[in-house]
Write a structure and sequence with these properties.
Blueprint lengths: L3 E5 L3 H8 L4 H10 L3 E4 L2 E5 L3 H21 L4 H10 L17 E2 L6 E2 L4 H12 L2 E5 L6 H14 L5 E6 L15 H19 L2 H9 L3 E5 L11 E5 L7 H8 L7 E6 L13 H9 L5 E5 L9 H12 L8
Parallel strand pairs: 6-10, 6-11, 7-8, 7-9, 9-10
Antiparallel strand pairs: 1-3, 2-3, 4-5
Length: 324
């Protein structure tokens, strides 16, 4: 019986990038799956009969190809993040299978994979709950995954629209005195959300969705009095809401709506005596079955290896108060 399992590449340069400098990526993969990996021409192979190992090997290579094709990155940090997600880490961790929780957006050429187990838990919550709080540091993927799932919902016609909002925390300049109409005034605040959308879909599709009012942007204050039906709503930078603003926002939720609330409690810009609506809401709403609260940390930072180390250093610093 032939025990060799082979993946054929049409592009030799892509195979070289998958392998890494001096086959450094292959060595990481070998250590993870426990069998040697070898290349021949434009092929990469393992000698292993176990179909589970073969599936895991294929999953890892497919993930690496997908990420390289999108970002051009083939660093060891990327490989580590893929391997740490795991294909099947045993029965206890089977719910955190990255392939199971990949987000497929109609019109996109790529799948959005969760890169850590907490990120997989977040995507699982997006699918199973109508109200999800995602709290974690910069670079942990909370906003990006919320945007990807919202795009998936609207382009799969499960909801009719996407509503993007953030609290406007002003720094010495009143929003009313900024030049332009309302949209031009708030666009800089919502730029990170559009950056995430443009990473998921071709820019022209995002532009068309915005032009047709399928994607709507609004300051948080403009939510008052509305009922948000049949839409995916993202409240970003929620750590900068007051308790009253958060209550107002959450009670806008209508029929067939998904609400994703994202924030980082280590980056609160409110006055020091002002209580964060995000912290308060997560405290009083925890335990309600219909609501999911997912907390990410430095281990989930995938923006870069250096950012991960910075975040973890701040997490370990006892002088950090959560009000930076």
């Amino acid at each position: 019986m032939n025990s060799e399992y082979t993946i054929v590449f049409s592009d030799g340069d892509l195979l070289s990038r998958v392998c890494g400098t001096n086959d450094s990526n292959l060595k990481l993969i070998e250590k993870h799956i426990g069998v040697p990996v070898f290349t021949r021409g434009n092929e990469i192979s393992i000698s292993e009969e176990d179909p589970r190992v073969q599936q895991e090997f294929k999953f890892i290579i497919d993930r690496i190809i997908d990420e390289i094709s999108d970002s051009g990155d083939s660093s060891s940090d990327l490989i580590h993040s893929i391997l740490n997600t795991g294909f099947v880490d045993g029965i206890a961790d089977s719910d955190f299978n990255a392939a199971r929780y990949a987000i497929s957006i109609p019109g996109s050429t790529r799948k959005i994979y969760p890169k850590t187990k907490n990120q997989a838990e977040l995507v699982k919550s997006f699918r199973n709950k109508n109200l999800v709080f995602a709290e974690g540091p910069a670079g942990s993927g909370k906003t990006f995954l919320a945007v990807a799932e919202a795009l998936n919902l609207v382009l799969s016609k499960k909801v009719n629209s996407i509503v993007l909002t953030r609290p406007i925390v002003e720094a010495g300049e009143s929003l009313g005195y900024l030049p332009g109409d309302l949209e031009s005034k708030i666009n800089p605040y919502l730029r990170p959300l559009y950056d995430s959308m443009n990473a998921c879909l071709p820019r022209e599709i995002v532009h068309k969705l915005t032009e047709n009012d399928i994607i709507e942007t609004a300051p948080l204050a403009y939510m008052r009095g509305r009922t948000l039906n049949n839409c995916a709503v993202i409240l970003d930078e929620a750590q900068n809401t007051t308790v009253e603003q958060m209550k107002m926002f959450l009670t806008r939720m209508g029929e067939n709506s998904k609400v994703f609330v994202t924030g980082d409690i280590s980056q609160i810009d409110l006055p020091k005596r002002q209580k964060s609506g995000l912290i308060h809401a997560m405290h009083i709403l925890e335990g309600i079955d219909e609501i999911s609260i997912v907390r990410l940390d430095g281990r989930d930072v995938v923006r870069s290896g250096l950012v991960r180390k910075i975040v973890q250093a701040y997490e370990q610093d006892s002088d950090c108060t959560g009000e930076a």
